[in-house]
């Protein structure tokens, strides 16, 4: 699932393309929304909360969308060919200058703007909230601390604790903290530093398509351990291990260096699960804008 910085960048680009402009075409092709035509509406803003997008219109309504695993928004000049098949389009918002197409958007809702909180009110503080301050940090810390008996890797992914982290940043935060993803939250010596680090990594990549936690942008050099199972640790040379963390459909592949990240750990993943999985995050951030 795309990370919060991917959604933030998507919202920023949609805002620049659509905000303040009237729609000459406003098709919603989701089964629950096909009767709505947004042509003639003016886009007031595009806002993001964690991994949620809200496109706000001048009639007091907002279009909510969530990218999930395979959703994306593309921007085109009118008349340009789309990069994905038309049958995957769930929303087409077109102005005189730009066309925004939302592909494979499974979660969509048209709702009063004043009711947006109904969809995101349960979330923890948004790590990319432009108004982030000590109050946000304190609330994230409170939500983090009450999950003391849970595994660090799972809590970092819990959007009700803090919104925006996905498996890439969860993995890299654990490495940079020097902690196994299976470390219990109550054993994290400085939880405030963990939250600050998570926000720092997202901010570092929020305004560019490339994602890097190492400070390098060259292909293959952008992460410390994420998607590097079986390769040598960049710090100590130990082979990076992988295993599933979580249960059922919520399980994710965890990557960690057993030397740099001491602590509890499960058995290594089987060869079938140890294969490198393609990252939808990277694919969507390289889309044509």
TrEMBL record:
Residues of the FPG-type domain: 224-262
EC number(s) recorded for this UniProt protein: 4.2.99.18
Region (Disordered): 262-289
Domain named Formamidopyrimidine-DNA glycosylase catalytic: residues: 2-102
Top-rank EC class of the record's enzyme: lyase
PROSITE patterns per UniProt: FPG_CAT, ZF_FPG_2
The keyword Lyase belongs to this UniProt entry's keyword annotation: yes
Family: Belongs to the FPG family.
Matches recorded under PANTHER family: ENDONUCLEASE 8
Protein known as: DNA-(apurinic or apyrimidinic site) lyase
């Amino acid at each position: 699932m795309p990370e919060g910085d991917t959604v933030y960048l998507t919202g920023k680009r949609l805002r620049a393309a659509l905000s303040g402009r009237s729609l000459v075409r406003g098709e919603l092709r989701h089964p629950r929304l096909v009767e709505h035509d947004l042509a003639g509406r003016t886009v007031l803003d595009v806002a993001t909360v964690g991994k949620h997008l809200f496109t706000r219109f001048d009639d007091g309504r907002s279009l909510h969308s969530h990218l999930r695993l395979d959703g994306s928004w593309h921007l085109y000049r009118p008349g340009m060919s789309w990069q994905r098949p038309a049958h995957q389009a769930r929303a087409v918002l077109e102005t005189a200058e730009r066309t925004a197409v939302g592909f494979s958007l499974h979660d969509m809702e048209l709702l009063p703007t004043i009711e947006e909180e109904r969809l995101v009110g349960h979330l923890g503080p948004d790590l990319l909230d432009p108004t982030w301050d000590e109050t946000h940090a304190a609330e994230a810390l409170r939500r983090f601390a009450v999950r003391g008996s849970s595994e660090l890797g799972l809590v970092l992914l819990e959007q009700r604790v803090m919104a925006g982290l996905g498996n890439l940043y969860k993995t890299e935060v654990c490495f940079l903290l020097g902690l196994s993803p299976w470390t219990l939250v109550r054993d994290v010596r400085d939880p405030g530093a963990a939250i600050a680090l998570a926000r720092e990594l997202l901010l570092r990549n929020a305004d560019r398509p490339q994602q890097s936690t190492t400070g390098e942008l060259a292909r293959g050099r952008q992460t410390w351990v994420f998607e590097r199972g079986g390769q040598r640790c960049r710090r100590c040379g130990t082979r990076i291990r992988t295993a599933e963390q979580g249960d059922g459909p919520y399980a994710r592949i965890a990557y960690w260096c057993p030397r740099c990240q001491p602590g509890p750990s499960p058995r290594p993943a089987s060869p079938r699960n140890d294969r490198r999985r393609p990252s939808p995050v990277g694919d969507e951030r390289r889309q044509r804008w």
